[in-house]
Amino acid sequence: MKKIFPFILLVFICCNNSFAQGKYDFAKYFKNLPFKMHALSIPKFPNKVFNIKQFGAVGDGMTVNTEAFAKAIDACSKAGGGKVIVPAGMWLTGPIHFKNNVNLHLEIGSHIQFTKNYDDYPLVQSNWEGVDQYRCTSPISGNNLKNIAITGDGIIDGSGEVWRMVKKNKLTSNQWKELLASGGVVDAKGDTWYPTKESKEYLDFASKLKKEGRTITREEAEKYKIFFRPVLLSFVECKNVWLDGVTFQNSPAWNLHPLLCENVLVTNLNVRNPWYSQNGDGIDVDACKNVLIYNCKFDVGDDAICMKSGKDEEGRKRGRATENVVIQDCIVYHGHGGFTIGSEMSGGVRNIKVDNCNFIGTDIGLRFKSTRGRGGIVENIWVSNIYMKDIPTDALSFNMYYGGFSPTDDKPADEKSKEAKAVEVNDGTPIFRNIYMKNIYCDGAKDAIVIQGLPEMSIKAIEVENCVMKADRGISIFDADGIKISSTKIISQSPVVRINQSKNVLFDNFEPVGSGSLIKLDGAKTSSIIFQGKNSSELKTKTQFGEGVPQNAVMTK
After folding, report:
1. Is residue 383 assigned to a domain?
2. Domains: count for the chain
3. Cβ atoms of 284 and 256 closer than 8 Å
4. Cα–Cα dist 457/38, whole Å
5. Does residue 25 sit within a domain?
6. Which residue in the list 105, 336, 394, 479 is annotated as catalytic?
7. Are 140 and 233 in contact (CB under 8 A)?
8. Catalytic residue among 302, 303, 363, 394
């Protein structure tokens, strides 16, 4: 028996290592990509362990452990790296600042709860929505680091409820009453709650700054400090980053914000926020290169999985695109967008692959948004095998008139198109092109597909292939050029397709299911609408021509 036991132990260790290697073998997701990208692997850490309890931490939910976390991380980094262990318990702490070669590992039953004391989060020079500005210190932060990770099975809670404003129309009447009873202040209209008087008053002060044409000073920012909510996790200019297994929740602003980072693995996470959370994004990949987001679940208050790269002139001058990103096997429940690009994309977004994801009850499934002034080029995007259900607005949306509204409050695309007039093309004109979508399925949406470019800059070269969508309304195409929809079935009310001021639109083996007029054309610039394959002749006969659209605008092949 004594001889058998070591053998059994050896077999167990080998099997366990094989399982671990299989669990984190991501090489297959980088094979046969439509763009060049090297395979990512998890950062390696020395086999050294630093338990926060050894540095004085107490997991009773009452003791503030900021100093213990700092000492453990410092000791780990100075020793060449390793694991900082967070055992089971409720660990109250102020901001956690990362250092090189540290893996913060949360064991089962662990819960990191960030303090609600504003004084713990001093103002720092940071970045918010693509612009450098003052923000409060993030609960978790790291700048210019290498080989950092947060792994395990625990929970990280950002105490966002003491930071965020809340809109009345996002709550039930009982929730609103409870919120008012908790303290804080309400604006003059009585429809927005703020945690402090200063956070409410900042909006008036911001209007004053805009009129004066100047930016806020640090002294002024200190007065309105609470308004400048931090993201929960801010990693800036870091390389070899790994986030795995844990739950991130209740962020003051965005949940996860890697900015200017390279080689980033985001795997097996749960990312949560209240549905009413203002700016409650899941993850915002901002001007990063080489990223994998795998097997993550999102249930948040704003965009779930979002690609960004800076805002307007500042983003264009920086000139750092988000590129080489693979998003695989993720689930999104509530969120303004399941997968989103923009609206801050001024540095460009390119070489993105999204595959095998589910969006359930998400406001918009696939969301591409920008506006005049952004500039930047979004191109070479591949999306496949997306399964959607009960989408309140658009299953697939391109919106070049984004104005900051939530999807459910935004104007319909046809209203925006009627009001649109061309302006001069310049560095601030956004460009979206070369985007390919295949095997997209949606059971229930308000609109199946909305493609809305600008009069001065069409959305170009969009391909939609082998899709089945059921929606109240079908396909709307405004100011677009080079749209191809093939082997696709749209089930909707009449008309199934609306095209305005667009050209070179090809329907190949397109199967619209509706009644009466299936295709409606408007706009004098509308031309080269081609029906090809089955139903082509029938589609032409069921096309309604609006004023100014020539009869030869439609062709069959």
Report:
1. no
2. 1
3. yes
4. 34
5. yes
6. 336
7. yes
8. 302
Q: Active-site residue 303, yes or no? A: no
Do the Cβ atoms of 115 and 94 come closer than 8 Å?
A: yes
DSSP 21-86: HHHT--GGGGTT-SS--PPP-PPP--S-EEEGGGGT---EEEEE-HHHHHHHHHHHHHTT-EEEEE
Q: pLDDT tens digits for 243-267? A: 999 999 999 999 999 999 999 999 9
User: Is residue 35 one of the residues assigned to a domain?
Assistant: yes
Please state, in angstroms and rounded to a whole number, the distance separating the CA atoms of residues 392 and 475: 16
Q: Which residues pair with 465 in a beta bridge?
A: 438, 486
Instruction: Report the 3 state secondary structure along 352-412.
Output: EEEEEEEEECCCEEEEEECCCCCCCEEEEEEEEEEEEEEEEEEEEEEECCCCCCCHHHCCC
Is 481 known to be catalytic? no
Distance CA 180, CA 209 (A): 30
CB atoms within 10 A of CB 203: 14
What are the pLDDT digits (tens) for 328-379? 999 999 999 999 999 999 999 999 999 999 999 999 999 999 999 999 999 9
Residue 119 domain flag: no
Model pTM above 0.70: yes
Residues sharing a CB contact under 8 Å with residue 440, sequence separation 6 or more, in sequence order: 366, 383, 384, 386, 388, 395, 396, 464, 467, 469
Domain residues for the domain of 34 are 4-46
Residue 34's nearest CA partner among 441, 467, 326, 349 is: 326
Q: Which 8-state DSSP code applies to residue 318?
A: H
Cα-Cα-Cα-Cα dihedral sign, residues 157, 252, 151, 79 = negative
d(CA 126, CA 147): 22
65 contacts 94 by C-beta, under 8 angstroms: no
